[in-house]
Amino acid sequence: MTRSEEAALIGWSAVAEPADEAAGALVAALGAANALDWVRDGATDLAGAVSTLAGRCAREVAEAAVRGHERWERRLPSADDPHARRAALVGAHVVTRCDPRWPSALASLGAAEPFALYVRGDGDLDSAWKGGVALVGARASTAYGAHVAAEVASGVAAAGRAILSGGAYGIDAAAHRAAVAVGGVTIAVMAGGVDRLYPAGNDDLLRAVINCGAVVSEVPPGFAPHRSRFLTRNRLIAASAATVVVEAAFRSGALNTARHATDLLRPVGAVPGPATSPSSAGCHALIRDGAAVLVAGADHVLELVESAAQWAERDEDSSGGGSQDGGGSRGRSEGLDGAGSAALRLDFELPGDRAVFDVTSRRGLATEDIARRAGLAWKDAAASTARLEMRGLIERSGHVWKRSHVDVKSRKTS
């Protein structure tokens, strides 16, 4: 892959929101550089640009590209920003799909595969994702949950497998900390740029993770960890060899990660808790519904991931070798993310509504600015603001939109 193609992949990491499957499909059909040129051409003559897609991609890809053009065009100037240089300023480097260091396990995400990864640390990402275990769970974990997470993480890491998680408080932090303590490899996947180690309270821990593995993000430095990006980030964690939910309530973001893992045909394990504990209700539901295998320690987790690897090898042998699942993750279920914010207790009809809610605040933004920050076309942003206004979540003030004064902790919406 040429240098221009690599630069275009980095550009796409800024132009498209994470998990933008329309962008992924267009890049797969045209190549990253040609796809970026197509967006540029469409900025002056969209009809002419559309005509050039005939014979170059499937009709559904072309139709999705036309719908996505406006949102990509809004961010087109950022494609030429010096993202790699900004990453270097904080000791990070960029790995794109054309790099031999790219984690091949992410190809199973299909059109939702990231374009680039911004990495702080020297961990072997390919090995980490291919054989590693995702340990996820509640941000507000109990002492029991943190203890089990640490026991499992230390055992798995000592066995030579990486621990992947989201760097958040609670179960994530317990898993990362235990892996670091035994000298194992651990990867923290961020929802925002790697220039900002988030949450700030885990700064020391995340710097230790950098020394033992890596802190990784699919968005460039300077991009904020919006709540919607926590959900899309979860699919990257779920692409590891197996996912284990240690402690999770019914509406935990960890369940979103488990659903992504199921979509990717990755094995899922869940740790049971006390029968009366709300903190373990999500784990119990996974086990009861047959969506996860009950695991009670590192040995169970290692058995789960090793059995999955044996089945994968058997499938490869029987099929004549290595076809990859290109279906990609289609999980779009809503749930709480690692940020643990009360706002995440709200339900949203469409992903765009969540993105619009995430970028608004009490300061006020015009629809044009909301569309650009949320990565949406103007008409989609306008439709989302109308829906959120009807629900009383945002309000118009002159020509700008502001968050409403609502108690989202106690409010239940549908």
| Class based on secondary structure composition and strand pairing | alpha/beta
Q: Can you give the helix content as a percent range?
A: 40-55%
User: What fraction strand?
Assistant: 5-15%
Order of helices and strands: HHHHHHEEHEHEHEHEHEHEHEHHHHEE
Oligomeric state of this protein: single chain
**Whole-number total of structural domains:** 3
Shape: globular
Beta strand count: 11
Itemize the secondary structure elements and their pairings.
Blueprint: H1 3-15, H2 21-30, H3 32-44, H4 46-51, H5 59-74, H6 83-89, E1 93-96, E2 116-120, H7 125-131, E3 133-136, H8 143-158, E4 163-165, H9 171-181, E5 186-189, H10 203-212, E6 214-217, H11 227-238, E7 242-245, H12 253-263, E8 268-270, H13 281-288, E9 293-294, H14 298-319, H15 351-359, H16 367-374, H17 378-390, E10 394-397, E11 400-403
Parallel strand pairs: 3-4, 3-7, 4-5, 5-6, 7-8, 8-9
Antiparallel strand pairs: 1-2, 2-6, 10-11
Comma- or semicolon-separated keywords:
alpha/beta, Rossmann fold, disordered C terminus, 3 domains, two-stranded antiparallel sheet, Arc Repressor Mutant, subunit A, 10% strand, 414 residues, nine-stranded mixed β-sheet, 17 helices
Describe this structure in a few short sentences.
The chain is α/β, with parallel strands linked by helices.
